[in-house]
Automatic annotation (TrEMBL):
This is Isopenicillin N synthase-like Fe(2+) 2OG dioxygenase domain-containing protein. Residues 16-39, 53-78, 296-316 are annotated as: Disordered. It comes from Clitoria ternatea. InterPro entries: IPNS-like_FE2OG_OXY (IPR044861), IPNS-like_sf (IPR027443). Residues 224-268 form the Isopenicillin N synthase-like Fe(2+) 2OG dioxygenase domain.
Length: 350
């Protein structure tokens, strides 16, 4: 990964240029030849559970905890501090940052105004070009907008763009610190997605899309539910901190060393809440054409050649994950929203 912010931003291409929604990419879940395989049977069961009535009693470990904990504080003073903070839980809060609270509040005001547009305006100003655009087609999810930080639109969104670029800069720094601390070399191109969505009462999911690092600014005292590797947890970050979550792509890159959070954090909203609540997330992720695999260590040429020859080894360690196509995986986790099964399970080596 580039050593400066300028070089890092050169790695950020336009996301999915020319993509359309007319024909979804082929996925393992849509292949009729795989219907009897164990992963697909588990996926079908997960989709069945997802459609169960909301008043059905489920195991308590699947529900967010009623008590909330304060996430550990993340420091960007050194890469090793970053790694030790997020490796065990998959999330942390960044309190020492340069994003002003006035900018976050202005960005929220501009984001709130998006939901007051007419349906025709929402669809015309934010057309669907997977995975970007306006989305209100699924009753299971709240309506949302997904766009690049440099989104070009007729709307005056100067604060929201500046806010997204500030979060993007921090996200790239965290990704760089993590890869340096892990001793691995990242040669992947990166891109960012801004995801603004309305918060509704109940157990609505925050939406699933593969990412490396996710960031959410804590404008006010607000609890969030996270689906971590250890189950649902409830967190209450400090006001004006940034909630940082480690995603599934980072877990694969680290060859299983990092814990992760599935999907975006969900704001806890009660039925009695009268004010409108939204979340503004910035996801550092990969372009559609990417391949996902554990990253090779920063080693000599001979060591890398040995890793290439040894299919189940990376840096002298046993490989934990198969490599897989990013676009197929992204389409699958977004549309199936596997709450009861880790979507990375099918790519784990036995």
């Amino acid at each position: 990964m580039a050593s400066s912010t300028h070089n890092q931003h050169q790695l950020l291409p336009n996301l999915y240029t020319g993509a359309t929604t007319s024909a979804p990419p082929p996925t393992p879940a849509t292949n009729p030849n795989n219907l009897l395989s164990t992963p697909d049977a588990a996926d079908a069961l997960s989709r069945l559970f997802h459609r169960l009535p909301p008043n059905l009693s489920l195991p308590s470990r699947r529900s967010p905890s009623s008590s909330s904990t304060c996430p550990p504080s993340l420091s960007l003073s050194s890469p090793n501090d970053t790694l030790s903070c997020v490796s065990q839980l998959g999330y942390a809060q960044l309190t020492d940052h340069s994003v002003p609270s006035e900018l976050a509040n202005s960005a929220e005001s501009e984001s709130l105004a998006l939901f007051d547009l007419s349906q025709d305006q929402k669809h015309s100003l934010f057309p669907k070009t997977w995975p970007l655009g306006y989305d209100d087609d699924d009753d299971e999810l709240a309506e949302s907008f997904r766009f690049e930080p440099s989104c070009s639109t007729e709307l005056p969104l100067a604060s929201l763009r500046e806010f997204a670029r500030a979060l993007e800069k921090l996200g790239l720094k965290i990704v760089n610190d993590l890869t340096n601390a892990l001793g691995v070399e990242n040669q992947n191109r990166l891109c960012s997605v801004v995801w603004v969505s309305e918060c509704l009462p109940g157990n609505k999911t925050g939406g699933f899309y593969p990412f490396i690092i996710g960031l959410q600014y804590q404008i006010r005292s607000q609890k969030y539910s996270l689906l971590s590797d250890s189950g649902w947890v409830s967190v209450l970050p400090h006001v004006d901190s940034i909630l940082v979550t480690v995603g599934d792509i980072a877990q694969v890159w680290s060859n299983g060393k990092l814990k992760k959070v599935r999907g975006r954090p969900v704001a806890t909203v009660g039925e009695e809440n009268e004010s409108r609540c939204i979340t503004m997330s910035l996801l550092i992720t990969l372009p559609a054409e990417s391949n996902v695999a554990p990253l090779l260590p920063k080693a000599s040429k001979d060591q890398k050649e040995e890793d290439d020859e040894e299919e189940n080894s990376v840096g002298g360690e046993e490989r934990v994950f198969h490599s897989f196509d990013f676009e197929n995986y992204a389409w699958r986790v977004y549309h199936e929203r596997l709450l009861f099964k880790d979507p990375l399970d099918r790519y784990r080596l036995p």
